[in-house]
Write a structure and sequence with these properties.
By secondary structure, the chain is α+β, with helices and mostly antiparallel strands. It contains 4 helices and 6 strands, in the order αααββαββββ. Strand 5 and strand 6 form a beta hairpin.
């Protein structure tokens, strides 16, 4: 069975305004996540959103992802993004980036840091882009010293 190849030149060329729109969605997501504004965060997502966390089962669909976000005991203080790249076509785009997240938990208010990378897939929905998949890896975790 032949599998059609992805035509690479078409997957790399996105208009600058599309790239800016996707960058804004990414920045808004981070802002909403830090503010714990789950309602606004879910407005960025497609109905069939998927979260693929490291070392855990995927969370599938808007209802399940919303419930997962609402019950999270982790408080995110800040997220720094580096190396963000956006590629795709007029109908689907993917974003890759590295992150440094400062967070604490309900059990332990000591700030900790996680380093890793993430992959997002976005799909054009009528006239706007919607997040359909977020997957991330964690390279390392560390407590942040007070010194």
């Amino acid at each position: 069975m032949d599998v059609p190849a992805i035509n690479a030149p078409y997957m790399n060329e996105l208009a600058k305004d599309v790239v800016r729109e996707i960058e804004q969605i990414h920045s808004n997501w981070i802002e909403y996540e830090v503010a714990r504004d789950d309602h606004s965060l879910m407005a960025l997502c497609a109905d069939d959103i998927e979260l693929w966390p490291p070392d855990a089962q995927p969370v599938l669909g808007r209802v399940a992802v919303s419930a997962q976000m609402a019950c999270g005991a982790t408080r995110i203080h800040s997220v720094e993004i580096t190396g963000r790249r956006i590629r795709g076509s007029n109908e689907i785009a993917y974003l890759t980036a590295s992150y440094r997240t400062t967070f604490s938990s309900a059990e332990d208010s000591t700030p900790k840091e996680a380093l890793g990378s993430h992959l997002w897939i976005l799909r054009k929905k009528t006239s706007t882009w919607a997040v359909t998949l977020v997957s991330w890896s964690v390279w390392g975790r560390a407590a942040i010293s007070a010194t």
